[in-house]
Amino acid sequence: MRVTIAEDSALLREGLVRLLADEGHEVVAAVGDARALLGAVEKDRPDVVVADVRMPPTHSDEGIVAALEIRRRWPAVGVLVLSQYVERRHAAQLIGDEGAKVGYLLKDRVAQVGEFLDALERVGAGGAAFDPEVVRQLLARGTRADPLARLTPRERDVLDAMAEGLTNAGAAERLRMSVSAVEKHVASIFGKLGIAEAAGYSRRVLAILRYLGS
């Protein structure tokens, strides 16, 4: 794949460049701030962007704002965001209403090379990849007036897998269940969350948005 990297730490940026090159990917640009990222994407139109959430000049949310702009202007470009922390609002914004070609990983996951590369390739192929720790922290929020509180533990496991970007087959393999059992749990999740089938909307994406919502 053709990849653009946006990371203000020169050490991590160069490490990612070498890692991806060793794995046969082409790094078309490696930049250190959000403005340069947008310019590089406009010029090169990579398959996937790997971007830090916090970048110069304020080191607050420049990276995630740029990632959202990329999804708006160039929806064919996949976006994999790296962060030191879990921020529910940004995760929900990033997934948007399409739920495809997007990922959110904690930076610790980059050290797990196989998992990082799997997430990158999943996003590049049109899927989603959310860090398991992001998912766990989202699930751990309070349950007062929370529609997710109606889900059984197994249904929560299935929704957990869905939010990580796994297909029904992938969830079945992860949870050691049959695909048909996962499909039944997914249907039950839709029912308990009150997500009816409607033209022009993906119930799966709506369920994940409900899950990621603040």
TrEMBL record:
Domain of life: Bacteria
Classification lineage: Bacteria, Bacillati, Actinomycetota, Actinomycetes, Pseudonocardiales
Name of this chain's protein: Response regulator transcription factor
Residues annotated with 4-aspartylphosphate modification: 52
Domain Response regulatory: from-to ranges: 2-122
Organism listed in the record: Pseudonocardia alaniniphila
Domain (HTH luxR-type): residue spans on this chain: 144-209
Pfam families from the UniProt entry: GerE (PF00196), Response_reg (PF00072)
Keywords, ordered alphabetically: DNA-binding, Phosphoprotein, Transcription, Transcription regulation
Keyword Protein transport among record annotations: no
